[in-house]
Amino acid sequence: MKEIELSIVIPIYNEEENVSLLHKKLTEVLKLMNKSYELLFIDDGSSDG
Q1: Going by C-beta distance under 8 Å and a sequence separation of 6 or more, which residues neighbour residue 41?
Q2: Whole-angstrom distance, CA of residue 38 vs CA of residue 24
Q3: How far, in Å, CA of 40 to CA of 9, rounded?
Q4: Separation between Cα atoms, residue 38 and residue 9, nearest integer Å
Q5: Long-range contacts of 16-22 (CB under 8 A, 24+ apart)
Q6: What span, in angstroms and rounded, lies between the C-alpha atoms of 49 and 37?
Q7: For 2, which DSSP code?
Q8: What's the distance, CA 17 to chain centroid?
Q9: Could you give the CA distance from residue 13 to residue 41 in angstroms, rounded to a whole number?
């Protein structure tokens, strides 16, 4: 496994309906960069899931 070159931390709160689309769009853009990356979605107490 390649060393992670980019980490993106995304705080989310009551965003259940939007997380999937956000992940898809970010992944599309990040793949163009040709770097290894990780997306960290951080949820602290959402009531929607």
Answers
A1: 10, 12, 19, 23
A2: 13
A3: 5
A4: 8
A5: 16/46, 16/48, 16/49, 17/48
A6: 25
A7: P
A8: 14
A9: 10
Its pTM stands at 0.80
Residue 7 has which token pair?
């980490």
Using alpha carbons only, what angle is made at residue 19 by residues 25 and 36, rounded to the nearest 5 degrees? 50
Q: What is the mean pLDDT of each run of 10 residues along the chain (49 residues)?
A: 92 92 97 96 86
C-alpha–C-alpha distance, residues 47 and 24, integer Å: 23
Q: Tell me the residue type at 9.
A: V
Report the percentage of the chain scoring pLDDT > 90. 80
Beta bridge partners of 43: 12
Residue position matching structure tokens 């992940």: 23
Measured between alpha carbons, how far is 29 from 4 in angstroms, rounded to an integer? 16
